[in-house]
Design a protein that fits this description.
The protein has 77 residues and is mostly helical. The protein has helices at 17-25, 37-52, 58-76; strands spanning 2-3, 14-15.
């Protein structure tokens, strides 16, 4: 199980590995467009994990994170 809200001790969001893989690979309307909060959190987790491990450049990370956050705000606010 993966806690995609790993910085939250009070409100963890647990996803099994198969579901996590499915969520991070969803690309309808672009990778940064998410249909559910769980998909959004999984993609943020994936992106941040990649950045921390050095797999994503700083510029690419900030661009993708910004797209994820802005698309989520626009969709749900």
């Amino acid at each position: 199980m993966i806690n995609v809200a790993n910085l939250s001790t009070d409100f963890p969001i647990w996803v099994d590995e198969a579901e996590y893989s499915k969520l991070i690979s969803q690309k309808s309307k672009g990778w940064s467009n998410c249909d559910t909060q769980t998909e959004w959190m999984a993609k943020l987790h994936y992106l941040r994990t990649g950045y921390k491990s050095g797999k994503i450049s700083k510029e690419n990370f900030f661009t993708k994170e910004k797209e994820l956050v802005l698309n989520w705000w626009i969709k749900w606010i």
